[in-house]
Write a structure and sequence with these properties.
The protein is an alpha/beta fold. The protein is 32% helix and 16% strand. Helix 3 links the parallel strand 6 and strand 7. Helix 1 runs parallel beside helix 2 and helix 8 crosses helix 10.
Length: 324
C-alpha cells in the first residue's frame, strides 16, 4: 500500500474501536481556537466553506485502506481541522456508504449546524459526535475562543435542529477545563441544554494531552464524577480505550510512528499499544527522529509526549489575555 496523505490508522479509539481517521481539512484550519486543543493554536481561523480536498481523492485513499484488509470498526472524519468546512463531505460520506458497510462517524465542533447545507451533509453518517463546552457567552469565549461570526445561542439552536432532523445517534461531548467552564452555574446550563438536545449519550471529558495553552488545567476524576451526577440524561465520564489485540503492520516502523505523532501528541506507551511494536523499537525510532528534528517532546501531567514541531505553537496566556 502506498503512503497515505489524508487517512491515518486504523488506530484504537477509546470510543470507536479501530478507527480509520479521515482528514479533509488543512492542518489547524478551524473556526474555533480552543484552549485545550491538542494540535496547538488554530493558524487559519476561518468561516469559509469550500472543497478543500476533493471527494474522489479522499475516497481513493479510503478504498486503498479497506482493500488492504485491516480491521476497521469505524471510518471517522476528524483530523487536523473542522471537517464541516469542506463542502464535499456529503459526497464523501455517500461514496463510503456505496463501497462498504463499515459505519461512518463524524467528529465535528457542530458550530455550523445552524446552516441547512451543513446539516444535510451529515444525514448519511452513522454516528455524529459534536461537543458543547459552554452555554454562556463568557465561558464559550474563554474555552473555545470562537471566530467572531459565531454565536453560542445560534450554535445550540443548530445542534437541537440537527437532532430533530438526523435519524442516527448523537453523542454529545463536553470537555471541562478547570476554572473556565466548570462552575456550578455553567454546569447547570450545560445539563439543561443537554436534556433539550436529547442525545443518545453525553460524554464528559477533560484535558488529557498537552493543550494549546500551557496554563490551563484538567479536572480530576472525582470532579468529573460529581459533575456527571448533575446531568439527568444518560451520561458517562469517558474511559481510556485499552487495546487487546494487534493490527498488521504496513508502512515502515518510522513512517507509522511519525504518522501518529503528527496527528496528535502521544506517549511512548500509546505508540507501543497503537502500533503493536516493542518499546525498544519505538524508543529507537523516536530517538532518531528527535536527533533529526522531525519531532520534539512536551511534558504534561508528569508524562512525556512526542509531538510534531508544527503543533508546538502554544503561547502562554497572561492575565490581560495577551500571549507571551
Amino acid at each position: 500500500m502506498s503512503k497515505l496523505k489524508y487517512t491515518f490508522g486504523p488506530v484504537p479509539s477509546r470510543r470507536l474501536g479501530y478507527s480509520l481517521g479521515v482528514d479533509i481539512i488543512p492542518m489547524k484550519t478551524c473556526n474555533l481556537n480552543c484552549v485545550y486543543c491538542e494540535l496547538g493554536r488554530s493558524t487559519d481561523m476561518t468561516m469559509t466553506l469550500k472543497e478543500y480536498i476533493p471527494a474522489d481523492v479522499i475516497l481513493a485513499e479510503i478504498k486503498q485502506v479497506i482493500d488492504s484488509g485491516e480491521r476497521i470498526d469505524y471510518i471517522t472524519f476528524s483530523g487536523s481541522g473542522e471537517p464541516t468546512l469542506n463542502t464535499a463531505m456529503g459526497d464523501m460520506i455517500r461514496g463510503i456508504k456505496a463501497m462498504t458497510d463499515i459505519p461512518v462517524s463524524v467528529l465535528t465542533n457542530g458550530t455550523l449546524f445552524y446552516m441547512p447545507e451543513v446539516r444535510e451533509m451529515l444525514y448519511d453518517a452513522d454516528l455524529v459526535i459534536p461537543p458543547l463546552d459552554a452555554v454562556s457567552r463568557e465561558a464559550f469565549r474563554k474555552v473555545d475562543r470562537p471566530h467572531g461570526h459565531l454565536d453560542i445561542e445560534r450554535i445550540v439552536e443548530g445542534i437541537i435542529t440537527f437532532r430533530h432532523e438526523y435519524k442516527g445517534p448523537i453523542w454529545l461531548e463536553i470537555l471541562f477545563v478547570k476554572d473556565i467552564n466548570d462552575s456550578p452555574q455553567e454546569v447547570k446550563l450545560l445539563a439543561e441544554v443537554a436534556e433539550k438536545i436529547d442525545a443518545e449519550l453525553v460524554q464528559l471529558n477533560t484535558i488529557v494531552r498537552p493543550p494549546a495553552e500551557s496554563n490551563v488545567e484538567p479536572l480530576t476524576e472525582v470532579e468529573l464524577e460529581a459533575i456527571r451526577t448533575r446531568f439527568h440524561c444518560k451520561t458517562e465520564v469517558i474511559a481510556h480505550f485499552k487495546r487487546d489485540d494487534a493490527m498488521a503492520p504496513d508502512l515502515s516502523h518510522e513512517d507509522r510512528i511519525y504518522d501518529l505523532i503528527i496527528r496528535r501528541p502521544v506517549t511512548c506507551d500509546e505508540l507501543v499499544a497503537s502500533l503493536s511494536l516493542t518499546s525498544e523499537i519505538v524508543e529507537h525510532h523516536v530517538a532518531e527522529m528527535l536527533d533529526a528534528g522531525r519531532i520534539m517532546t512536551s511534558e504534561y501531567s508528569g508524562e512525556l509526549y512526542y509531538t510534531s514541531p508544527r503543533q508546538k505553537n502554544r503561547p502562554v496566556l497572561v492575565e490581560n489575555g495577551k500571549s507571551q
